[in-house]
Structures are given as C-alpha cells and as structure tokens.
Amino acid sequence: MNDALSLRQVLETPFHARTSALCRTNHWGNWAGYTTVQVYEDVQIEYFAARNAASLFDLSPMTKYDIEGPGAEAFLNRLLTRDVRKLRAGRVAYVAWCDDDGMLMDDGTLFRFDADRFRLCSQERHLPWLLDSAIGFDVDIADVTESVAGLSLQGPTSCEVLRQAGCRDIGALRPFALDRFEIDGVTLVISRTGFTGDLGYELWLPPGDALATWDALMDAGPLHGITPMGSLALDMTRIEAGFLQANVDFLAGGRPTRTGRLRSPLELGLAWLVDFDKGHFNGRRALLAERDNRASRYRLVGLDVDGNKPATDAFLYDRRGREAGVVTSAMWSPTCKKSIAIASLNAGVDVDLDGVWADIYVSRELRWRRIKAPCREVPRPFFNPARRRATPAGHR
User: Fold this and answer.
1) Closest CA to 186 of 155, 217, 160
2) 153 with 54: CB under 8 angstroms?
3) pLDDT in tens, 45-93
4) SS3 state of residue 79
C-alpha cells in the first residue's frame, strides 16, 4: 500500500492562511481532524493577553450539528439532561447528554436560533448516536462543522475590539445570548460565550468570509492588545475557570476500551445540569437510582495545592497512604498565584478530614524529586471576574 494513501488526511481550518503565517514556533496539534496552533510565539504572552487584553482563537474544528424541524425541541429534550423548553430563542446553554446507564456521552453548548432550529456543539463527533436517538422524531440533523467557521475573542478588551470593528451595540449582548452583527460587510452570528471564564465572545460565520473577518479584528485590535492564542494558553484559562475538558477530566462516551471508565454527571459535579422534573431523558432512571441510593463512585473537586509545582497527573493519597483519587487537570495559576487542580476523588473521601496530599514528581537537572503536597478543597471556578457577567460589557 502506498504510504501516502495510508495516512489520514488532516484538514486545514478556514483561518489557516493567517494562523500558519503567525505561528513562529511551528507547534501544531490535531484537533478533531484539523491542524491547529498549540503555541504561536509564547504561551505566557498568549495567556496574559486573554486575562489582560484580548486573545483570538481559531474555534473552527469544534464539532457542530444543526438540528431542525417540528420535533427538534422534543428530540433535544429527550436527548439532553437539561430542560430545553426553558431555553429561549437567541440564547445558548451549557448541556450534557448520557447513555442509558447514566454515563456522560459528552458535554457542549446548545444554541437556539428559533422555535425549531438549534445548533449543538461538542468536543467529539456523535452523528451516529444523534441519528439513532432521533428515530421517531420529526427532525433533521446535519454535521455543519466544515460549513461554519468559528473564532473565539476573549479577554477584558474583547468588547472594545468588536466595537472598533463595527459592532456598535455589542456591549448590550448579555452572557449566553446571541445575535447577528456585521463586521466589514460580513454578516455573522456572535454569542457571548467562551472557554476562558472571562468576558468574551464567539463568532460564527461562513468559511468564505473567514480571512476578511480575521483581518478586520486584527486591524481593530492593536490598541486593545489583541493577540492570537493557541490551545495551550486556552487550556490554562479553562482550568482557572474550572471548566471540564472531554478526554482529560472525563472520557467521552465511545472512547474507553475498559468498562467502568465512564463517569456520570453526578460524579463530575454536573448535577445542576440534570433536570429530573422535566420528564424522561436518556439515562434518567440510572441517574435517579444513583442519586437516591447515593451510589456515586467519584466526585470531582477543585483543589488548592501547596507549593508552586503543578500536580499534573498526580495520584492523591490520604494520611494513611491509601489512594484517594487522581488529578485530572493542574497548573500554576499566574492570576490566582497558586497551584490549582481539578481532581476526581473516590466517593466518601473528605479532603480536609482525611488529610489528602498530592504525590508530585519534579525533575531537576536529570534528578527526580518527590513532593508530598497537602491539598485543600476549594470552590470552582478558581478565577471568576465580575466582568464575565457584567452588562453592558466592557465597563469595569
């Protein structure tokens, strides 16, 4: 077999001509079959742009499904754990969906454009699952990932960048709302959403208008510190925001090869996403039994870890040396000025009462040092600025 033919093709996003020209590190990654920038020039510079100015991130590889038809609301209400009937047109909601055993398939965002037209965005591809789940509903489902380009503009000056680019009324857009705007003659949908836990927006537009929109934002942003951001800096901001990452903090359905590796929403701190009163949905019986019988095997928590070394992939132990859980995401937070972590604890473990500590290994000049760092349970998000929710936006 020809080796070239045996290789899987990696696609380029509609913004590739701009992102590739700016990527000085040549540090790339594969996101859902697309080549994407991990670091443009410096992770710290890109991170601080998101926290102190404005960052621009290519969001195009995110999986997107348009779900339309008279039965769209009923189908989504059967599929998702939230009550979709409460989601008004022009709004966005964080959602999750489960298999029949109550195990999380994936999480994502649901956009409601009008009564019978939705868009579901997620990390993983789920078209076969969605099509099978839609049997009996009058609904059409289409994978529109390639036909919808996306940009994430995040940070305290992001609103001002959009104003400068021509979106004069953008400040009135409320958190988790969406509307149509025009930038340099291009009509696009902008939602006040993001993965940084900060003031920010996501822009959705036809691929043919991608480069013109990128150029318009970059031209509007120099005085507001606009900086392209790669995936590594974005991951830092999402940990500070306490957001979960599929296949990092939990395994999406269909990924594990061993039984027992999936988690339920209740085990991931997502009980607030589960509406038991709305009627039947996928996994409801299993989740009811888990809740009523207190049968959760794990619980997800935020941790403040002693010292300045990230507890990446660390095992957690109690004071008797018994395994208590594992860290799924960790970092030294430049903004919070402490080592933070998201961790999956075994059921029944109390961080403070059991004296939980992280087993951290640090390499120093080719020698490994073991650090036993005490941990304290703290609320998520770790970083939660008031500007994230303020309306009008951009006013401190």
Assistant:
1) 217
2) yes
3) 999 999 999 999 999 999 999 999 999 999 999 999 999 999 999 999 9
4) helix
In this structure, the number of other CB atoms found within 10 A of the CB of residue 297 comes to 14
Residue 330 to residue 342: CA distance in whole angstroms? 6
**Within this chain, domains 63-146 and 297-389 share the same CATH topology:** no
Helix or strand run (H / E) with residue 391: none
Packing angle, helices 231-240 and 43-52, rounded to 10: 50
pTM of the model: 0.94
Residue boundaries of the structural domains of the chain? 3-60+148-229, 63-146, 297-389
Among residues 218, 219, 56, 18, the alpha carbon closest in space to that of 151 is found at 56
Residue at token pair 């830092």: 236
Which of these CATH numbers, 3.30.70.1400, 3.40.1190.20, 3.40.50.1390, 3.40.50.1000, describes 63-146?
3.30.70.1400
For residue 35, give both structure tokens: 């080549």
Pick the CATH number of 297-389 from 2.40.30.110, 1.10.10.10, 2.40.100.10, 3.30.110.30: 2.40.30.110
Residue 160 near residue 142 (C-beta atoms within 8 A)? no
Q: Which stretches of 69-221 are assigned E, i.e. beta strand?
A: 91-98, 104-114, 117-122, 140-143, 149-154, 178-183, 186-191, 200-205
Helix (H) or strand (E) holding 296: none
CB distance 60 to 209 below 8 Å: no
**Which of 148, 146, 163 is CA-nearest to residue 113?**
148
Which pLDDT tens digit goes with each residue over 160-192?
999 999 999 999 999 999 999 999 999 999 999
Q: Provide the 10 A C-beta neighbour count for residue 129.
A: 18
What's residue 1's pLDDT?
37
**d(C-alpha 311, C-alpha 359), whole Å:** 8
For tokens 């939660």, what's the residue? Answer: 384
Rounded to whole angstroms, how far apart are CA atoms 359 and 374?
9
What 3-state DSSP class applies to 85? helix
Fold designation for 3-60+148-229: Gyrase A; domain 2 (3.30.1360)
* Interval 266-293 mean pLDDT: 97
Q: Say if residues 69 and 116 touch (Cβ distance below 8 Å).
A: yes
